[in-house]
Amino acid sequence: MFASAAVCVVAVLMDHWLGEPRRWHPVVAFGALATCVERALNRPPGSVSRGFVAVLVLVAPMTAVAWMLADGLPDALRLALEALVLWLAMSLRGLAEHGRAVAVALERGDLTAARDAVGRIVSRNSGALDQTGVATAATESMLENGADAVFASLFWYLLAGLPGVILHRTVNTLDAMWGYRNDRFDRFGRFAARLDDVMNFIPARLTALTYTLAGQTATAWRCWQAQGRHWESPNAGPVMAAGAGALGVSLGGAAPYSEGVRQRPVLGEGPAATAGSIRASIGLVYRGVGLWLVAAVLLSAIH
Q1: How many of the other CB atoms lie within 10 Å of CB of 246?
Q2: The pLDDT value given to residue 186
Q3: Which range marks the domain in which residue 236 is found?
Q4: What is each CA distance from 150 to 6, 135, 203, in whole angstroms?
Q5: Beta strands in the chain (DSSP E)
Q6: What DSSP state is assigned to residue 272?
Q7: Given this model, what pLDDT does residue 18 score?
Q8: Any residues with CB less than 8 A from the CB of 147 and at least 6 apart, and which?
Q9: C-beta separation of 9 from 90 below 8 A
Q10: Terminal alpha carbon distance of the chain
């Protein structure tokens, strides 16, 4: 247990010092491979069974290799590999950099730059967003992606080691690429989306608990319990409701997408999001990571 906690600490420090690889990233390479597989199998668009085969082809070999490496390498080499892979699977610094870019643009009154920056991290029609809409979108992204890109990776590593973090990151990437409700992906991406929901069920609720403990606890708990279940996504709802409550802001509401404006439930309590809310959400994620690392080290000392 101590070795696993140490790996988490090292991976977080590597992320802090190095950030994401600039020239070549294995997740980007996996995404390119997934695009090739999708183009080959998703013809004509709309087959759930082909989507299942695509997930199996892409995920099973990588998870199997990770399992064999975790079982066959000397301990020192295995731990080094685990720290490297966990660093590459997480994106704490990258998440913060994207969020700060939006906040900086809003703070200097450059709405065009803010829209461009938020358009890199959300799927909604960023060109139709006003200042509040941009701040809301970025704050929501920090909270939700904190769960997906940081806490879930830590959870699956601590639960299942190297195979766990590889399995989660590949499935989550496929959901991000294929989990759209449109003619091309509604059926093909359904298995990846449902598998991602299952894998993130516990991490999402642990993330909601983390935000609750690291922010305005009473408000966060109340918003999580009252509002989380009304959100479209069963995992994003608790995370963002607790996060909004922890920050003391209101999120959700109307949001423009390519297919039109979606009317979403309001999450949280308090004023509308601002550039300060984006920065506060980043701080919330960082405090949460600190809580996880402290908890992992303490639990390892007990055992």
Answers
A1: 29
A2: 92
A3: 2-302
A4: 16, 21, 10
A5: 250-257, 260-268
A6: B
A7: 93
A8: 200, 203, 204, 207, 235, 236, 239
A9: no
A10: 7
Q: Report the distance separating Cα 74 and Cα 242, nearest Å.
A: 42
**Cβ(120)–Cβ(98) below 8 Å:** yes
Amino acid symbol at 232? E
pLDDT along the chain (303 residues), means of 10: 92 95 88 96 90 97 94 92 96 96 98 97 93 97 96 97 97 94 91 97 98 98 97 95 98 89 94 98 98 94 79
Q: Are 75 and 162 in contact (CB under 8 A)?
A: no
CB atoms within 10 A of CB 48: 14
Are the CB atoms for 136 and 195 separated by under 8 Å?
no
DSSP structural state of residue 273: P
Q: Say which amino acid occupies 179.
A: G
pLDDT at 44: 85
Q: Which two structure tokens, joined as six digits, stand for 39?
A: 């183009």
**Structurally, how many domains does the chain consist of?**
1
4/157 Cα distance (integer angstroms) = 8
Whether 91 and 20 have beta carbons less than 8 Å apart is answered as yes
Residue among 61, 58, 93, 65 at smallest CA distance from 81: 65
Cα 91 from Cα 80, distance rounded (Å): 18
Q: Structure tokens of 282?
A: 């980043």
Q: What is the dihedral of CA 65, 70, 72, 78, to 10 degrees?
A: 120
> Which class for 289: exposed (0-12), middle (13-18), buried (19 or more C-beta within 10 A)?
buried
> What distance in Å separates the CA atoms of residue 67 and residue 161, rounded to the nearest whole number?
9
Does the bond joining 21 to the residue before it have cis omega, within 30 degrees of 0? Answer: no
